[in-house]
Write a structure and sequence with these properties.
Layout lengths: L9 H28 L11 E4 L14 E6 L10 E6 L12 E3 L1 E7 L5 E8 L1 H8 L8 E6 L13 E4 L2 E5 L3 E6 L6 E6 L2 E14 L15 E16 L3 E12 L5 E12 L4 E9 L8 E12 L8 E6 L4 E5 L12 H8 L12 H6 L8 E8 L2 E7 L7 E6 L2 E9 L2 E7 L8 E6 L5 E9 L20 H11 L14 E11 L5 H12 L4 E3 L1 H6 L18 H23 L15 E2 L4 E2 L15 H12 L2 H16 L12 E2 L11 E2 H4 L5 H7 L2 H8 L29 E5 L2 H17 L2 H15 L9 E5 L24 H11 L3 H13 L4 H8 L13 H11 L2 H13 L12 E3 L8 E3 L5 H17 L5
Antiparallel strand pairs: 1-7, 1-28, 2-6, 3-4, 3-7, 5-6, 8-9, 9-10, 10-11, 11-12, 12-13, 12-17, 13-14, 14-15, 15-16, 16-27, 17-26, 18-19, 18-23, 20-21, 20-25, 21-22, 23-24, 24-27, 25-26, 29-30, 31-32, 33-34, 35-36
InterPro entries: PcRGLX/YetA-like, PcRGLX/YetA_2nd, PcRGLX/YetA_3rd, PcRGLX_1st, TAT_signal
Pfam families: PcRGLX_1st (PF19501), PcRGLX_2nd (PF21345), PcRGLX_3rd (PF21346)
Organism: Paraburkholderia tropica
């Protein structure tokens, strides 16, 4: 040990990689996944079984307000017009029996080419779950069963929503809402059983003209501006007997002027029998970061209060399961006591007598006990929060409590009921804030701040001034040392977006602390129903490069070692997210790109080595790892990366829309704006298993993204190999990173809509790629944007990039070849799979010359495995394993070792794996899962 750094010998490292470190990681993985993954076996592959994400051995969730999920179906198995039931796995599968079975509100997500259902979406409302369980709390799995739709089916239960003039009215049977079609209010009222509880929901944005509290000039004077959300369009996006979805679009308007800021999309979700509304809040950044510093983004509503201040209750929850619980005016700790039973009742949030009934002293003097009307919970960073309170405006604040991480759920209660309100991923998306104002009055105000006004302002200015990079030559020189592609005007956050989730729940009384913690846990980790991975594999969900992990121990030592290493890699990154604090409003969901072993930090401040932005398919790796392992924590990590990657890493408006930005110190900082970052291939996993409307609209925004390549050239620093003569209808498109993204968008839109125009474009592209002199090894082509067809290259030149097949192209080609019969394309793709890492002699024989030294051979091993699986060539399968285990430009088992670095070498003790990078991890993980799926018997 030297200077606090724990060193081990090479032999110790190697032995730990086999026996110690990997074994420990595998044990941790089993602990996370046993209840879900171990319940899946081949027998379950014959029926569309669904489980709770956190384990099929878990009973009904403690707090449940509704769930929506997707189910895949084998080709030709389910008619597109089918209806669906959900039944308990043990219930009799007879259509005439109502026991243990409920009808589902369902809709199609995707179709096979023959018109049969490929994916369906389903909703389970609380009322239906209660009927399904019928008081039976025994843990259950469920089965989704298709059946012929009945003519009167939609009349069995009324729809949740209806239009009433300029309002949308909602009635879940418990919760009633009135939503204006336009104007300044998200909702007029939210009521429980007809009694108005919440009023005047509205959106707020606060801005400053200078970055106060951002470490700049001391105590700058600044002008604070207020913007209020203005709804321009309201759409009843879905309306059925079990669920209704209302979509609101608009922007924030400055009070007293015509200025607008931050366009938004809100979706409000209502479920039959639920007393809660889920709000998905998406905003797009359109400010000038040099002039407008966002100081607050929030949702505010009013709440009428009855009773006296001592009959009103405030609650805040901690991430540790603790609760801050107080009355607005306390009866405890006073010089006089109203009695132990009254004190205990108030502390528990139960009804207490009015002041007049507490005795003469309280009737006369309770007015002198302060009523604390205002509360603020502030989470300015990932590791600390405070709760402050004051009696009223104009009076001083006092510190009431502090802690590490708040759960982001709070409650305000009175005699007639209470509201629980919370922000999903509250501390992870800091700075966040919850405000209660006027709880001592007849009408309180609650604000959920997605960006906290009491924290430093949102400073999105470029982190450097260009450093004199005024020409392409200088920018290339800078790229050579910092790995950052800089160009003036490109380092802008204009058009990036952020999606957050909020829940409001109306309750008949103030919940107990335990009940509120259950609500907080539901908001943080919503109960999810998901199809079994065995069923998904049988239904050919997604690409062919994954298979569920077998519950039995693999016989081959290398297979077992690979499984342990897969767990180790995920667990290492899961640990790094926490240790390195990869959290924050704009950062949460991403990971870092490359490590600096000298400073013992990830290269957070070095050009293109900082935030990963999905480089080399880190998101696809996470989704494949979840599909392979079934781990709930892996699902949630992949979900967070999908939210981040589809929003923050992509420009949604402006000159770069809808392209994404390459990895950088700031997510939007790199001037390489590319389809490979915004690709639908990264996000379709989450869309299909969750039926998430926001991801669905973001994927649809990519269907014409290729047209942006006419004016934003991916290769502008190195030249355009085939510049088109007619840029109005043509663009230069690479056959790898560009076309893989284009094909993913077109494939997804075709299967979602059945529109043959997208199929025709795909076929035209596939056919003309195959018709090139060297197929995929031609590298680029000029695409006719009207048809998708490529012009034939007459130069005969070879062009191949190691990046072509590491941004989702293998996965998308695997899906395309399942649904489209284009024999020449299949031949061209298999040629690419086999020749990329073939010998120079083999390349020369097929292409006329060798391809030279190519990188990322380990990641390309799964392409060999695919070719072996398609052709039955065992030699290719053996070659795939040999190439993968060699670790060229990737990782080996010996790299998967954690070293502990201790203070004072670092600020606090951390784990590091110096030879691990996100690029190699993503490609190693995809390769390992792909080989285990395609050629497991050829190791």
């Amino acid at each position: 040990m030297s200077n606090g750094f724990d060193r081990r010998t090479f032999f110790k490292l190697a032995s730990l990689a086999v026996g110690g470190t990997l074994a420990d990681a595998s044990t941790a993985a089993r602990a996370h996944s046993a209840s879900y993954a171990d319940s899946i076996d081949d027998a379950n592959a014959n029926e569309a079984r669904v489980h709770w994400l956190d384990g099929s051995l878990r009973a009904t969730p403690e707090s449940f307000t509704g769930a929506t999920w997707g189910v895949p179906w084998p080709r030709g198995a389910v008619d597109a017009h089918s209806a669906f039931d959900l039944r308990l796995a043990h219930a009799a599968a007879t259509p005439t029996s109502a026991s243990g079975r409920v009808a589902l509100q369902s809709w199609p997500l995707a179709y096979w080419p023959d018109g049969s259902l490929k994916w369906s979406a389903h909703t389970l409302a609380p009322q239906a779950l209660a009927a399904l369980q019928n008081g039976d709390e025994t843990p259950r799995d469920f089965i989704v069963e298709p059946r012929a739709a009945r003519a009167d089916e939609t009349n069995n239960a009324p729809a949740i929503a209806h239009l009433d003039g300029d309002l949308i009215r909602i009635d879940t049977g418990v919760l009633q809402a009135t939503l204006p079609l336009n104007g300044a209010r998200v909702f007029d009222t939210l009521s429980r059983n007809g009694q108005a509880t919440l009023r005047d929901g509205r959106l707020l944005v606060l801005t400053d003209e200078a970055p106060t509290a951002q470490h700049d000039d001391e105590a700058q004077a600044t002008a604070r501006e207020r913007y209020t959300g203005r709804i321009e369009h309201a759409t009843l996006e879905q309306n059925g007997p079990a669920r209704a979805v209302v979509k609101l679009t608009g922007t924030h308007a400055q009070e007293g002027s015509n200025a607008t800021l931050l366009p938004f999309v809100l979706r409000l979700y209502f479920y039959r029998g639920s007393d809660a509304v889920r709000i998905v809040h998406s905003l797009v950044y359109d400010a000038d970061p040099q002039r407008s510093f966002i100081r607050g983004v929030g949702l505010r509503f009013d709440m009428p209060l009855d009773g006296e201040p001592h009959e009103r209750f405030v609650r805040f929850t901690g991430d540790n399961g603790g609760v801050f619980a107080e009355a607005v005016r306390t009866l405890t700790g006073l010089r006089r006591s109203p009695g132990a039973s009254v004190e205990a009742a108030q502390f528990a949030g139960e009804v207490t007598p009015p002041a007049s009934a507490l005795g003469p002293v309280f009737a006369k003097d309770l007015r002198f006990v302060p009523a604390w009307g205002d509360y603020t919970l502030l989470q300015p960073n990932a590791d600390g929060f405070t709760i402050d309170k004051r009696t009223q405006s104009g009076c001083g604040w006092i510190r009431a409590a502090s802690g590490t991480r708040a759960a982001g759920t709070a409650c305000l209660g009175a005699l007639s009921g209470s509201v629980a309100f919370g922000i999903h991923h509250f501390w992870q998306s800091y700075p966040a804030q919850l405000d209660i104002r006027g709880a001592h009055s007849e009408r309180a105000t609650v604000t959920l701040w997605l960006w906290a006004p009491d924290a430093p302002g949102m400073d999105l200015r470029p982190y450097h001034d260009g450093m004199g990079e005024t020409s392409y030559a200088l920018q290339r020189d800078a790229l050579d040392i910092t790995y950052e592609d800089y160009e003036p005007g490109f380092m802008t956050p204009y058009g990036v977006a952020r999606t957050s989730e909020i829940e409001l729940q109306l309750l008949p009384r103030t919940p107990t602390n335990a009940e509120l913690i259950d609500i907080a846990r539901r908001i943080e980790t919503p109960p999810r129903l998901l199809p079994s991975r065995a069923w998904m594999h049988r239904a050919e969900a997604f690409d062919p490069y994954w298979r569920p992990r077998a519950s039995r121990v693999a016989a081959a030592p290398v297979i077992a070692r690979t499984q342990r290493a897969l767990d180790w890699n995920y667990d290492f990154y899961r640990g790094q997210i926490e240790q390195r604090k990869w959290y924050g409003f704009w950062d949460f969901g991403d990971v870092m790109h490359t490590y600096d072993a000298t400073r013992h930090v990830w290269r957070y401040d070095v050009g293109g080595f900082a935030w990963d932005n999905g480089e080399l398919s880190s998101g696809i790796w996470l989704w494949h790892y979840w599909l392979h392992s079934g781990r709930a924590d892996a699902f949630r990590t992949a979900e967070a990366m999908t939210r981040h990657g589809s929003e923050v890493d992509v420009h949604h408006i402006g000159p770069f829309s809808p392209l994404g930005s390459r990895h950088d110190v700031q997510h939007w900082g790199d001037s390489a704006k590319q389809l490979r970052v915004s690709t639908v291939a990264n996000h379709r996993f989450y869309y299909y298993v969750s039926a998430d409307e926001r991801i669905g609209e973001l994927m649809r925004a990519q269907i014409n993204a290729v047209e942006r390549l006419r004016d934003v050239l991916p290769g502008r620093k190195i030249g355009e190999p085939f510049p088109p003569d007619d840029r109005a209808h043509h663009a230069t498109v690479s056959f790898g990173t560009d076309w893989g993204a284009v094909a993913a968008a077109w494939l997804t839109e075709w299967e979602r809509t059945g529109d043959p125009a997208w199929r025709d474009k795909l076929v035209a592209s596939m056919t003309t790629i195959a018709a090139q002199p060297h197929g995929f090894f031609t590298g680029y082509g000029v695409m006719d944007l009207r048809t998708g067809a490529f012009a034939r290259d007459a130069s005969g030149a070879l062009s191949v990039s190691h990046l072509s097949a590491v941004f989702g192209l293998p996965e998308i080609c695997g899906e395309l070849l399942r649904v489209l019969d284009v024999p020449a394309f299949r031949t061209a793709w298999l040629q690419y799979c086999t020749l990329y890492s073939a010998s120079a002699d083999a390349q020369r024989a097929a292409l006329g010359q060798p391809l030279g030294k190519l990188n990322l051979n380990q990641g390309h091993a799964r392409l060999l495995a695919y070719a072996a699986s398609e052709t039955g060539d065992r030699a290719l399968a053996h070659r795939a394993w040999t190439q993968f285990l060699a670790g060229h430009a990737g990782s080996t088992f010996e790299d998967f070792v954690i070293e502990r670095v201790r203070v004072p070498t670092v600020l606090y003790d951390v784990d590091e794996a110096p030879r691990v990078s996100t690029n190699s991890t993503a490609q190693w993980g995809l390769g390992a899962i792909g080989l285990l799926a395609l050629v497991p018997d050829d190791v």
